[in-house]
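Human: I'm a chemist; would you kindly supply sequence and structure tokens for a protein?

Assistant:
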Amino acid sequence: MVQDDLNDFTQGDFERSFESSIVAGRVIIQSNALLEVANEFSDLPPAASIEIKMYPDKAFQLRAETDGSSCEIDVDKSSPALIEYEASTEIASTFQWSLLQHSFQGLHFASESFVRLNAEGYCSIQHMALLGSKRAFIDALLCPDAT
């Protein structure tokens, strides 16, 4: 069961709901570059909120503010780490750091990562790992923070 403040979903319902929704922003990025970005937030408390923001003409940003500190990482559209980037509109969504940490665990094994935000602010993160001559995928779907 997946719960947010507005809906209760089974996992299958949640996945189908995300897949049928309008994706407002998407990025395919080299996983080692996304791991470097994630490491910048590693000292945050688990309950900290991280905002993911995607722009049509810039690229994307991860930002956190806690009592006494803040961290903001911008990834430019011209970055060689970006494989593909598209945002139809400016979109921002906030997630608990502990949830993002779990979804980023696959970065250590992956070569590329695919991050999508839908129009409702839900996030899909998919990591592609090469296991010999085969590809494997690690998926995470995140509900936005209710705060």
About this structure: The chain has one domain: 2-142. Residues 2-142 form a domain with the Proliferating Cell Nuclear Antigen fold (CATH 3.70.10.10).
